[in-house]
Amino acid sequence: EGEGEAEIDYVFKVVVVGDSAVGKTQLLARFTRDEFALDSKSTIGVEFQARTLTLHRKRVKAQIWDTAGQERYRAVTSAYYRGALGAMVVYDVTRRATFEHVPRWVEELRAHADGSTVVALIGNKADMPAARREVAADEAARLAEEQGLFFSEASALTGDNVERAFLTLLEEVFAVVS
Ligand code: GDP
């Protein structure tokens, strides 16, 4: 299976945003390497991870960008968003505040990214026990509908729905650019 640059038909930049510690880095590791790193901050300073896949017989290189901790200082720069065709806004289903901040992240995306950027809302850590849950799936689905976003819960830890969420987003991006 060739991965050479010459065979790439499209490069899709996808940015992952959301509050600190919602699992952005782990979602990216799960999708690009099928890994869940216990030393979660080993990727600090790494700008993006790539995975090449075939969509509708085209070779698509998905470049998934990680904030690498910038969000802690509210310093996600416009360079981060520039050229992003897709975006994932991630919250943690066990921390309500991370969900309450979703509209802020969506606004920031809309302000910095292109108007046609496809946005997905992801409720991560769906593997956590029900008693720890602070955000119901149907509430998040409602918010997503209002904001015109694709929504899915997922777990970077178990891998549940991670592949499907990224593929759905990439398919939507493909539909926009092709
Ligand atoms: P980031 O700051 O948004 O990049 O978050 P990280 O990817 O570094 O994850 C923050 C913490 O949440 C780490 O301790 C991870 O091990 C943990 N974590 C990430 N994803 C999941 C998940 O799906 N389930 C559970 N239970 N923990 C997770």
From TrEMBL:
Coiled coil (UniProt feature): none
Species of the source: Panicum virgatum (Blackwell switchgrass)
GO molecular function: GTP binding; GTPase activity
Record protein name field: Ras-related protein RABA3
Full-protein interval shown: 17 to 194 of 247
Family from the record: Belongs to the small GTPase superfamily. Rab family.
